[in-house]
Amino acid sequence: MSSFKQADHKLLMIPGPIEVSDDVLLANAHPSMAHVSPDFVPVFGESLEMLRKVADAPSSQPFIISGSGTLGWDLAAVNLLEKGDDVLVLTTGYFGDSFAECIATYGAQPTQVVAQVGSRPSEGEIENALKQKKYKAVTITHVDTSTGILMDVEAVTKIVKRVCPDTLVILDGVCSVGSEEIHMDAWGIDYLLFASQKGIGIPPGLSLSLASPRAMKTFESRSTPPAGFYTSWKKWLPVMKAYEARTPAYFATPPTNLIYALHTSLKTMTEGPVSLAQRFEKHREASQRVKKGIENLGLEQLAQPDSRQSGVANGMTAVRYPRGFKASDILPKMAQRGVVFGAGLHKDAKDEYFRIGHMGVSVVDPARKDVDVILQKLEEALAEAGYQKQ
Amino acid sequence: MSSFKQADHKLLMIPGPIEVSDDVLLANAHPSMAHVSPDFVPVFGESLEMLRKVADAPSSQPFIISGSGTLGWDLAAVNLLEKGDDVLVLTTGYFGDSFAECIATYGAQPTQVVAQVGSRPSEGEIENALKQKKYKAVTITHVDTSTGILMDVEAVTKIVKRVCPDTLVILDGVCSVGSEEIHMDAWGIDYLLFASQKGIGIPPGLSLSLASPRAMKTFESRSTPPAGFYTSWKKWLPVMKAYEARTPAYFATPPTNLIYALHTSLKTMTEGPVSLAQRFEKHREASQRVKKGIENLGLEQLAQPDSRQSGVANGMTAVRYPRGFKASDILPKMAQRGVVFGAGLHKDAKDEYFRIGHMGVSVVDPARKDVDVILQKLEEALAEAGYQKQ
Questions:
Q1: Does this model's pTM top 0.90?
Q2: pLDDT at residue B8 is higher than 90
Q3: Which residues does substrate bind (chains A, B) (predicted)?
């Protein structure tokens, strides 16, 4: 199956899309199948079931919908919120800001707690903010892809359950599901939204999400109809229930090939030789190696010192350029060496740092040696750029 | 590349998803690429340009968005309509009904002209309806996938231009673009929405659309903001303009692999040995052969006699079961013979007919002989079911 990889393929080490394994690519090239075919129906149904396993959410309702990860924000705003609802948004980068904008678009009222670049809001700030108003929901970006800041979701949900137990907890797991440990049921997450092209390890194009029983009850007891059509759970819920019961149903044509790819990846994640617990451990190990390697080169993380211990992602690393160097000094030299890193994305610092993704097969399959390769190539690129460790 | 086709792959002859050519499947298995990569940017940009060619719409603004075809209705309702706007919906099946429901969800007011099963509204009915109110827009389902009824879009737009020239013309081309002739600019279509899994010949998962200069002006002069976030052209327009100018931009991660597949198929459609005009002609020829073959077997189309001449699709055929036969007598026997047909879908007649798709490679590539195969297998299945031509 190595025929998929052209000789000039560059190693994709950005925080999504990530490298995709050959068996998943082959599944994405599945011959065309009817969305109602008896061969396809169980593939869809099993994929729904496996999503619950990945998020440790046995009681939840899964959704697989054609769309980018961004669509998950709309699904939350359209189905769980109503006009005038107050929502607390914990922001650690670009994606918190955008989630707040999405919420406001549909008429709910976001209040943001914004951490400075490379930090996260303290537990005291969060507790204090939660006490200011009766919030219908609080949103957490588990890992903000723009900064690599990791939130301690378990700790935040504990505060919410203590201070305002009626407040729904909405978790943006786009850059965390599959690479960070998540226990949706045990932590009390009400809605977990994510996408296909990061820790799940397939090409982009699927909006994935899971809703708790409480979230579904909130949806069912809305006083106004959902504020969208394509995004309405009224339309999707019967479809998801039908496929899980192994019968077809129709609202919109599901993206059959991406669902074959999803099924293949979820099978590996839930039944492969590497258990989910081991998968998370491998992400932590790889992350430590990358962060240690960065430090050894004399480079600094974007993350502030107070966040570096427990507040940084295990699936990506944001790295400051050395003083006097910029993107054009480093990233093209990495590309020449066959490695793609991501540029900065935070509005206040985007020219000051680059981003390395280390998720999925790149860290789970040791034979690839992707982490060794990127650290080696980075050292070479820096040297060619004239950088000397101080 | 025939390795993609398993020996047990059944010929998929439903009105979407359709059979996908091997080069497109291979493109869908492209190694993972960054959405901002200098290799991917022109693939996205050229795809936007080729969409204009397929719809003969040089003046239009194209959009490629991750989503099912259904998302195109939301894009129309969110960006072109505002609360209270009156919209005339010309309905020839399931999809007209659903489009009306989508429009109502966002607060505009649909008025439907509903044709009886297997017919289309007459030009007199349409003209009369257009004179009743000042409509912001009229929607036409070019081919309603549930019935195979084809609207004469050129004739309808002529009526609109004469009776109410300010009314926007919105065309649902999900089951027509690529299989039916469309001249968006010349006919005066303001918004054409479609999907990837029918005449475009790639797997499902892309919402494709084109907006006329007048549609973009209508959008820019809205008195209220667009009623969605993921669906807002405010977000997508800068992205589409950037990629067409061969620079990356970000709102949501584009479905890179599906865009490689789209690019591959659009290249064939616009630059391949079969011209677009020949492609449409091949669809007309294949359609005639299927419809003649059906008639030779003594079967009847769902289309009423008054529609059979010019009012039926060239990419699909809806066929009534012979008297005394039902879906379970025929469709499983087709599947046993390696051919997948679609069941009925119109709410008033869904158990009375089945649907045959004949689009894309199945009719453009004569070496496949797909039309011969399905007619032959249908004759065998009918005989096994005990059917005798009367």
A1: yes
A2: no
A3: 355
Number of H helices and E strands in chain A, helices first, is 14, 14
Q: What is the ipTM of this complex?
A: 0.97
Tokens found for residue A329: 């000094």
Measured in angstroms, the CA of A336 and the nearest CA of chain B are apart by 13
For residue A293, CA distances in Å to A290, A299, A319 come to: 5, 9, 11
Alpha carbon A256 to chain centroid, angstroms: 22
Q: Tell me the CA end-to-end span of chain B in Å, nearest whole number.
A: 45
Phi, psi of B319 (to 5 degrees): -125, 130
* Among B361, B201, B194, residue whose Cα is nearest residue B286: B361
Whole-number Å distance between alpha carbons of B59 and B79? 19
List C-alpha distances in Å: B115 to B109, B120, B123, B126: 19, 5, 12, 11
Mutate to test the interface with A, among B39, B230, B256, B350 (most CBs of A within 10 A): B230
The residues near A330 (Cβ < 8 Å, ≥ 6 apart) are: A321, A341, A354, A381, A382, A385
Q: CA A224 to CA A218: how far, in whole Å?
A: 12
What three-state secondary structure class fits B319? strand
pLDDT the model gives residue A1: 36
Interface touch B228/A105, C-beta < 8 Å: yes
Among residues A219, A283, A318, A329, the alpha carbon closest in space to that of A15 is found at A318
For the beta carbon of residue B53, count every other beta carbon within 10 angstroms: 14
- Say yes or no to pLDDT of A346 above 70: yes
Do residues A86 and A136 touch, judged by C-beta distance below 8 A?
yes
Question: What is the residue type of B8?
Answer: D
Q: Do A33 and B20 touch (CB under 8 A)?
A: no
Average pLDDT, chain B: 96
- B289 is an annotated ligand-binding site residue: no
CA dist., res. B148 & res. B150, Å (int): 6
Q: Enter the tokens of residue B127.
A: 């003209």
**A29-44 pLDDT per residue, tens:** 999 999 999 999 999 9
pLDDT surpassing 60 at residue A218 = yes
d(CA A361, CA A344): 23
DSSP β-bridge partners for residue B41: none
**Residue A390 banded pLDDT, cuts 50, 70, 90:** confident
Could you tell me if residue A6 is left (phi over 0), alpha (psi between -120 and 50 degrees) or otherwise beta? beta
Token reading at A10: 């560059």
Dump the DSSP string for B228-244.
-STT-HHHHHHHHHHHH
Nearest to A4 among B19, B31, B251 (CB): B31
Pairing of β A316-320 and β A353-357 = antiparallel
Dihedral (CA of A4, A284, A355, A113) sign: positive
Q: How many helices (H) and strands (E) does chain B have?
A: 14, 14
Q: Write out the DSSP string of A72-115.
A: HHHHHHHHH--TT-EEEEEESSHHHHHHHHHHHHTT-EEEEEEP
